Every structure is written in structure tokens, then in C-alpha cells.
């Protein structure tokens, strides 16, 4: 599962060639649970060039 997410992140990163920095954030609902959200932010200095949010939940969050 994580390898496909990394591949998607790299493809997204390649499309944003002007970006000089990439931030990758995993959000967890609980410390012992798997991540529920993957956030990718592409920046050129302080300027945000692109952002992607990937829902990692298998079931809908209530």
C-alpha cells in the first residue's frame, strides 16, 4: 500500500517542476492506528505551488 502512495506522490511532484521543496505529512486519528490522511505540499520558497490530500481511510469517517 505505501509503495503505491509513494509512487503517486512522486508523479505529483514531477508535475510541479518549479517546486523547490516538498512537505509530506501523515495525519493519524489515534497514535496506535494507521494514518488516515496523507498531505503533500509543493513549495517554491514560501509560495505554495500545489497541494494534494489523499484519504487513507478504508471506511467513511463518521
Kindly name the structural category.
alpha+beta
Whole-number mean pLDDT: 85
Number of helices: 1
Number of strands: 3
| General form | elongated
Uncertain regions spanning at least 5 consecutive residues: none
Q: Estimate the strand proportion.
A: 35-45%
Radius of gyration: 13 Å
Q: What is the strand arrangement across the widest sheet? A: 1-2-3
Along the chain, the helix and strand elements come as: HEEE
Explain how this protein is built.
The chain is of the alpha+beta class. It has one domain. Helix content is 23%, strand content 44%. It has 1 helix and 3 strands, in the order αβββ. The chain has one helix at residues 2-15, and strands at residues 21-28, 35-44, 47-55. Strands 1-2-3 form a 3-stranded antiparallel β-sheet, covered by helices on one side. β1 (21-28) and β2 (35-44) form a beta hairpin. The mean pLDDT is 85.
Index terms:
62 residues; three-stranded antiparallel beta sheet; 1 helix; alpha+beta
Q: Which helices and strands appear, and what pairs or packs with what?
A:
Elements: H1 2-15, E1 21-28, E2 35-44, E3 47-55
Antiparallel strand pairs: 1-2, 2-3
Amino acid at each position: 500500500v505505501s509503495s503505491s502512495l509513494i509512487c503517486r506522490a512522486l508523479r505529483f511532484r514531477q508535475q510541479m517542476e518549479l517546486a523547490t521543496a516538498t512537505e509530506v505529512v501523515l495525519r493519524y486519528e489515534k497514535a496506535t492506528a494507521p494514518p488516515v490522511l496523507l498531505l503533500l505540499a509543493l513549495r517554491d520558497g514560501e509560495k505554495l505551488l500545489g497541494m494534494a490530500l489523499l484519504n487513507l481511510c478504508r471506511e467513511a469517517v463518521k
